[in-house]
Amino acid sequence: MKKYIKYLPVLAIAFAACEPEFDNPIEEDNFFTSGEADFSNYVALGNSLTAGFADGALYRTAQNDSYPNIMAQQFALAGGGEFTQPLTNDNLGGLTLGGNQITANRFVLATDANGNPGPAVLAGTPTTDISNVLSGPFNNMGVPGAKSFHLVTPGYGNVANFPAAANPYFIRIASEPNATVLADAVAQNPSFFSLWIGNNDVLSYATSGGAGTDQTGNLDPSTYGGNDITDPNVFASVYSQQVAALVGTGAKGALVNIADVTSIPFFTTVPAQSIPLDAPTAAFLNSNFALYNQQVLPGLVQFGIITAEEAAARQINFAEGVNFPTMSDDDLTDISQILQGPPFGLDAATAATLGTLRQANDSDLFPLTAAGVLGTLVNDNPQLINGVSVPLADQFVLTAVEQGRVATAQASYNATIQGLAAANDLAYVDARAQLQQVAGSGVVFDGGTLTSTFVTGGAFSLDGVHPSPRGYALTANSIIDAINAKYGATVPKVNIGDYSTVNITNNVN
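Structure (tokenized):
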């Protein structure tokens, strides 16, 4: 079981029991209208958010609660047609290829031997093999893991290119091995579309703690790594291509912008101060770092190697109580080689530890993956403690500098999306503002309040990134609001309380 359960608040299991009833439902035929829109053939393009991904996997019941499927059910009340999805074979969520499991099963909420609740991987052998290509077309063209440029990349659904350059989810549904996601969507001649893409262009960089590269200035996405930030000009180019192709069919549609990825529970659950120390231990650690604080750092300033401001940022100090962990920050000057030379003469291992060392602060964000590392022993050695004597690796911390890179790219992407919505007279959905409300005061609905609190907030699934069914219902309502306002439609929204939150079971691996 994941060790980050110790950071969770006490769970109130009763949150799943709220099922409000409503009097006098409206059932009159032709009561709802499509306005200037035509919902007879709705096609949704995007990534995992569009596919209905939740709890770390794509599984059948979550797909049924995808926001496009929820919307399609509402569109049916205003002239909408059939909406098809490439459903998985089971509710485990894992994928296989040639009998080998290639993606993990989904998370469920379970309790450990001590009764502590937390996410755990559901047990079982998945039955969805990606080599069994489904016969489409499919109205839901959400492809988990896809970045903006992937929607126009030939061969992205070719199993021969897997795993290097093909997506297992698109392999299942591509019309032919070298088809593109966009071409398969356009071939359906949609009367209405939604497009929500670009989250992964910054999300993978963020969730990896900035382990990738900001590719701003590099216009060749074929050279990007999986955790890199997409150049804003590349995003603008491929996104414009996608919008042009979709409106070229005569369809109307809705464009959805990119939410702040750092507002999701994946980044807001683990506290920055997370290392509890008693007074003797804090004093012992401070004595070990005294030489570094009082001689090494001032010496580096004196030699002009680092500034006084950087020296101050690199000070390591502990106190009785809960402390900030130590960490490695690759945006700092790497002083490891200098520390091995005169006048310091440190051994290679110590110099490497101190090379980019600093203590975390309130500006740093710790992903959920850090919770299973903070305070743990390295090789069962009580002298080697992650976040104390051993700095956390950069992948477990998203620094303020790295957050700035994400925010800059995201702002550019959103400017492109909003500009193209205006230029093409399309509905524009501000998912960023919606998430800010969820992460702030919360969103009140018929059965309570949706917040971004991990597990108990109701809006997010157990991976801390993707919405729960209730969160997807909120998303569907936001898009419906924008569509009704833009096209004069009267599509009804859904009752958020009718949808579930997280799944509870102890049938885990």
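Residues 31-89+137-268+400-498 form a domain with the Rossmann fold fold (CATH 3.40.50.1110). The longest helix spans residues 279-302.
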